[in-house]
Write a sequence for this structure.
């Protein structure tokens, strides 16, 4: 079955309902078609148990390589992956395994260009909605936010940080926290560490009668497709999903063509870019 042009690739994503991960899956499917690869994609539903089951399922099949994004820390799943002796490409979230290839987003750069943008719009009271701290993107984006705010000379204010989970509801809940702050001390800008939480912020503020960007500027991270559809259109930090898929399949293809044990793990970094739309506004100092 596995001729030169009939390779089979497995893909495990954390949550198909998250538009970022569904766009990753879609882009990899398109890229695999270009290489005449078949792709088997499965969803872990943000469940560690489901993730382990998915790994056991796909590694028991006659696949030629595996693309993996973890839901978060999952030791049993990583032990199972360590037994998989075919090419493995890990995306977005590092895991404690050697001899695998990594394709990662430059979270440091994304946070820096986002905060520089808000700072240049004269925002100094900048709130942040963090992602889950047991994932690399969640932890890195929060850590780099704190570091960059310090570099900008802005003192950390714990009341302006909300511990989110990358889900829509976190945005709504963060709005409730930020609006409890006295009016003169409230944030003028809210930076969500993914677009889904930014959507929750926008909905929550609209329901309470606030206007965006007149009352609050909102900045997201990822640039999922809906970001240009909602009102107002969301300014965000774009991850190059098509570029990630293109580079990812290229890396995996090279490993499949040279099936020797991996002794030279590759770590490729994809740089994000700022997308300016309608959800941020310059204010007076």
């Amino acid at each position: 079955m596995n001729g030169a042009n009939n390779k089979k690739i497995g893909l495990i994503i954390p949550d198909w309902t998250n538009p970022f991960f569904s766009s990753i899956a879609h882009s990899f499917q398109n890229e695999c078609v270009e290489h005449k690869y078949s792709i088997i994609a499965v969803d872990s539903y943000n469940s560690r148990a489901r993730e382990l089951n998915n790994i056991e399922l796909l590694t028991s099949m006659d696949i030629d390589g595996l693309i993996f994004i973890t839901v978060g820390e999952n030791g049993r799943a990583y032990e199972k992956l360590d037994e998989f002796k075919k090419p493995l490409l890990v995306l977005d979230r590092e895991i404690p395994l050697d001899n695998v290839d990594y394709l990662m987003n430059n979270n440091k750069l994304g946070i820096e260009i986002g905060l520089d943008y808000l700072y240049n719009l004269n925002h100094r009271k900048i709130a942040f909605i963090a992602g889950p701290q047991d994932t690399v993107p969640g932890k890195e984006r929060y850590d780099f936010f704190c570091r960059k705010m310090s570099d900008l000379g802005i003192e950390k204010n714990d009341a302006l940080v909300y511990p989110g989970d990358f889900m829509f509801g976190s945005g709504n809940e963060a709005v409730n926290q930020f609006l409890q702050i006295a009016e003169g001390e409230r944030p003028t800008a809210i930076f969500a560490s993914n677009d889904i939480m930014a959507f929750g912020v926008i909905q929550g503020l609209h329901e309470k009668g606030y206007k965006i960007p007149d009352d609050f500027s909102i900045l997201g991270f990822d640039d999922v497709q809906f970001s240009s559809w909602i009102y107002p259109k969301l300014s965000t930090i774009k991850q190059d999903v098509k570029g990630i898929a293109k580079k990812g399949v290229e890396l995996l293809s090279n490993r499949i063509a040279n099936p020797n044990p991996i002794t030279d793990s590759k770590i490729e970094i994809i740089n994000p870019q700022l997308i300016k739309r309608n959800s941020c506004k310059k204010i007076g100092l």
Q: What stands out?
A: The chain has two domains: 8-104+240-270, 107-238. The first helix runs from residue 19 to 34. The helical segments are 19-34, 48-59, 75-82, 107-120, 136-151, 168-179, 195-207, 241-257.
